[in-house]
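Dear colleague,

Thank you for sharing your sequence with our group. We've completed the structure prediction you requested, and as agreed, I am returning the results in plain text so they can be pasted directly into your records. Please verify that the sequence below matches your submission; if there's any discrepancy, let me know and we will rerun it promptly.
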Amino acid sequence: MTLPRLLRRIALAVLGAQAATVGGLIGVDSWRKRMRPRQATFPRTEPAEVPLGESLTTVYSYGTVLYEDMLEAIDGARERVLFESFIVKDDEVGQRFKAALIAAAERGVEVFVIYGAFANLVVRRAFFDFPPSVNGVRHPAVNPGMLLLDVRKSGRDHRKLLVVDGEIGFVGGYNVGSAYATQWRDTHLRVRGPSAWELENAFVDFWNQHRAPTQPALPEHGSTLWEPSLRVHRNVPSQLIYPIRGMYLEAIDRATERISITQPYFIPDRAMVRALLAAARRGVDVRVLVPAASNHVVTDWLSRGFYTTLLHGGVTIWRFENAMIHAKTMTIDGRWSTIGTANIDRLSLTGNYEVNVELFDRGVAEHLERVFATDLSNATPLTPAEWARRGVLAKFTERLLSPLRPLL
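Please find the predicted structure tokens below.
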């Protein structure tokens, strides 16, 4: 047998083993969830309104409270509602949002809706049928340009935004659905005041780029406000612009005391791992909070492949119990924080359309640190000794799946 043929056979064998492992993990995980459904329980942190420049910010960590305030904002709209979500479920919560958007349009408010086709493939298509008074964009599940390997056409719309009258803006990790209201721990931010323009501008640019030629363009008003305490960063795959990753790395490099990270799908690239380890070496208390078991079992296994390096490097890993934690937040030194839609994985940082808010404010950072402390009361720390005791099969599975990290 020639060497090239041998290498091809080895590659095919590895790919087959990876496919079988992925299929097995998904199958076992689905069986476990059916046989032992999880009753989500977790402590809550009440929202807190914090002044920031000329605006007011509010951090939400419980879906029911967030949704009521979002619906109240839509019901109170006078001129325009801009709504964008990665996932909208056809359930009680999703129906309430749909009804509120239609009602706003019927009373003369301009309503613009963006949603992703890919994440809503399991939602019946008729649910997204809106009357003509609602302007809608369905971001495609598969862009034809992807077939030509054009990376500019490969991004999914993973953003979650609501902006009302240019005065109130919401952004964060929450999708729209009944399960997210009470069973998932997530984090969202509301901005009331002139800084809401930052979120409005993010929606306007996306709409104008992706709308159909027959749909109305949104005006770009500009803003006289330059608020140094709040910045909105947007990943734009069609322009190969990915500032959120750089934001994370620059902030980590600046840390001198503590870093608190909450992530649902934590698959950092080499630069991110190096930055976290460097921070730990210079005495920074680096803590990463992840789900004990997320809704994507393969992602969990890919994430675990980094635990040995991080734990040995002085990073503390905490695992959130009894519920899915889906928040995408980071705070540093009680002074800097970010809340948004981007996960620390390849898809979010160099693939999807994302929006993160960067906040230079002690009040917001201190509140997020209180949220983090509350979450840790429902989490278990993973010690290096405990991690070293995992079985040989677990170690083999982590190594076998590690080449898949760039895909996620």
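Summary note from our side: The first strand starts at residue 48 and ends at 52.

Kind regards,
the structure core
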